[in-house]
Amino acid sequence: MEKKQFQAESKRLLEMMINSIYTQREIFLRELISNASDAIDKMYYKALTDDDLVFDQDSYYIKVIVNKEQRTLTIRDTGVGMNREDLENHLGVIAKSGSLSFKEANQSKDGHDIIGQFGVGFYSAFMVADVVTVISKPVQGTEAYKWVSTGTEGYTIEAAEKEEPGTDIILTIKPSTDEDNYDEYLDEYRLRSIIKKYSDFIRYPILMEQTSSRLKEGSEDEYEEYTEETRVNSMVPIWRKNKSELTPEDYENFYTEKRYGYDKPVKHIHISADGAVVYQAILFIPGSIPFDYYTKEYEKGLELYSNGVLIMNKCADLLPDYFSFVKGMVDSESLSLNISREMLQHDRQLKLISKNIESKIKSQLLGLLKEDRESYEQFYKSFGRQLKFGVYSDYGAHKEVLQDLVMFVSSQGKQWVTLDEYVSRMPEDQKYIYYATGASVERIEKLPQTEMVADKGFEILYLTDDIDEFALKAMNGYKDKTFKSVSSGDLGIEPGDEQEQTPEEAEESKELFDYMNEQLSGKVSKVKASKRLRSHPVCLSSEGEVSIEMEKVLNAMPDNPNIQADKVLEINVQHEVFASLKQAFEHDKEKLNLYTALLYNQALLIEGLPVQDPVEFTNDICKIMV
Ligand SMILES: Nc1ncnc2c1ncn2[C@@H]1O[C@H](COP(=O)(O)OP(=O)(O)OP(=O)(O)O)[C@@H](O)[C@H]1O
After folding, report:
1. CB–CB of 304/344 below 8 Å?
2. 328 with 281: CB under 8 angstroms?
3. Residue 470: pLDDT over 70
4. CB 35 less than 6 A from any atom of ligand 1
5. A Pfam family in this protein (predicted)?
6. Would the ipTM clear 0.90, i.e. be above it?
7. Between 189 and 544, whose confidence is greater?
8. What's the CA-to-centroid distance between 101 and ligand 1, angstroms?
């Protein structure tokens, strides 16, 4: 029998293929099953134009058969089959896809979409097999042929016996070595799991013999093994079903089956888009945070299918970082796959899909916020931090998408409030959206800096997360209103009469404050009379872009940039302490120095900043006690 040679380039290409296109060996099964499914699809197309053929969906199947003794794995289909010419042209020429030509000649209808396009998938069989034998009989023909190849050595074709039309792809599985386990491709359970993973939604049944055990007839304790043929794939992808046919339980089951999470999702989003880009998607907002969510180990992404075949487990490009908590899958016919189907070309389609998905997620979250506040707050407690990171990232470029989704606890009843709610209940004379920062709501409530704004009856957002203030800065403002820290210089509130010092008093205290400022040189940039304090004697505020809270966050970072806020020590001139300061200024400078140091350290403590020299601080307290 004449042995035909692959062309030189083909030989190299095949070597390259086998060794480098695919990173995972197990996908050989996906490729062969996809080919089998394509072959059956082609029957469907042929039946459309050939009156002698009837396409009865139920009579077509794909069978995976294991023979452990002979180390063979057979993938059998009842599709169109190949004649001698096809075997030569389609399997003898690498990168020639009979399926692609077929697809081009037959426009896709009714969701019968052919998968093959590159003409290389078949050769992935050589990743696990020493010898590949193809026995095929075309549906329109009487003769069967056998194609045999050991890979790079070329192939032979001869006449063969086969009753039914269709194709058997018989792989002689390589022997296992110390490094490589090939036996797994002869293991029923392993094969089933590979089929489930990649080919669950192939629309023809994928059948396999299943070994189980049962009680022997007539016996109460003796078991026997038996085999029966069962279907491995679930065939109908739920995302192709009509939304009205599906119940909330169906979605929840899908979420659990797919192992997106072990919790109950807060919401599902089922998309069937057939506009500029055609795709289906089922997305979920998880009900609780995955344990590794806020760690580097967490990988975002959606499962990506092309025509029901899994292409990628986690396609990161489909989700922006701020929606990285979303789980689910996308299936599209219009993707430009690369040859291994492992990575996608960064194409327009994918971008369109991800833009589309982003706006769907946003509108669904807004819907949840409106219709089911409790669930939204539950969601927000888990993933709000990620949304705020999103607002802050890329210099606020995504604020339009996210600003209506963020919330903060506010001084009004310590409830969550959105920016929209805050602004809509602002009294007319309130210029700014006020916020205060601190480690917890309880601590913020006690901050002296909040006194004046709170006295005025203005609502204050309580910022307890280290990202919060950065996010607000990135947003700049909301609906024409700018954000204002209660610790910032100008609060935009006219002080009441009782706070105003007369010009003489102000002149008098200026000398005192200048003196104190000198004592605190390098620590604060100014000491001044406070306009915001009511009952407390002292507080720190900041001037300029960097607030004290931001200083804390920035300095806690690993590469500690040592950024300092421009701090101002504010003294409540209505407080009795101020009278003592004045007294000491006139009669006892040493005492004033002591008071200045004490007040400064108290202000630091209130802010949650470390006292630079705690021993000296306690000594100072002792000094005033004796
Ligand atoms: N089971 C089969 N029945 C009928 N024809 C087949 C079968 N398997 C492969 N072929 C033919 O061989 C060709 C080459 O198959 P191969 O898997 O290499 O490429 P493909 O499926 O066209 O593209 P891709 O690389 O994208 O999978 C197919 O296009 C098809 O014409």
Report:
1. yes
2. yes
3. yes
4. yes
5. HSP90
6. yes
7. 189
8. 11
pLDDT range class, residue 497, cuts 50, 70, 90: low
DSSP output for 576-594: HHHHHHHHHHHH-HHHHHH
pTM above 0.80, yes or no: no
pLDDT in tens, 475-484: 989 999 999 9
Among the residue ranges 221-235, 332-346, 371-385, the one predicted with the least confidence is 332-346
User: What one-character-per-residue DSSP string does 255-283 give?
Assistant: HHHTTS-SS--SEEEEEEEESSSEEEEEE
C-alpha 120 – ligand 1 centre gap (Å): 8
Q: Which sign, positive or negative, has the C-alpha torsion 303, 304, 308, 310?
A: negative
Distances (CA, A) of 131 to 31, 73, 174, 181, 204: 17, 11, 8, 17, 27
166 CB under 6 A from ligand 1? no
CATH architecture of 497-626: Up-down Bundle (1.20)
Four-residue CA torsion sign, 306, 312, 313, 319: negative
- Is the predicted pLDDT of residue 112 greater than 80, yes or no? no
Query: Cα(411) to centroid of ligand 1, in Å?
Result: 66
- Ligand 1 centre distance from Cα of residue 96 (Å): 9
Q: How far apart are CA 431 and CA 482, in angstroms?
A: 8
- CATH fold for the domain made of 395-494: Rossmann fold (3.40.50)
Which atom number of ligand 1 is nearest to the Cα of residue 36? 1
Predicted confidence (pLDDT) at residue 106 exceeds the cutoff of 80? no
Q: In the prediction, which pLDDT does 9 show? A: 60
Whether 606 contacts 447, CB under 8 Å? yes
Domain boundaries, the chain: 11-231, 238-371, 395-494, 497-626
Report the CATH architecture of 11-231: 2-Layer Sandwich (3.30)
d(CA 522, CA 47): 88
Cα–chain center distance at 626? 62
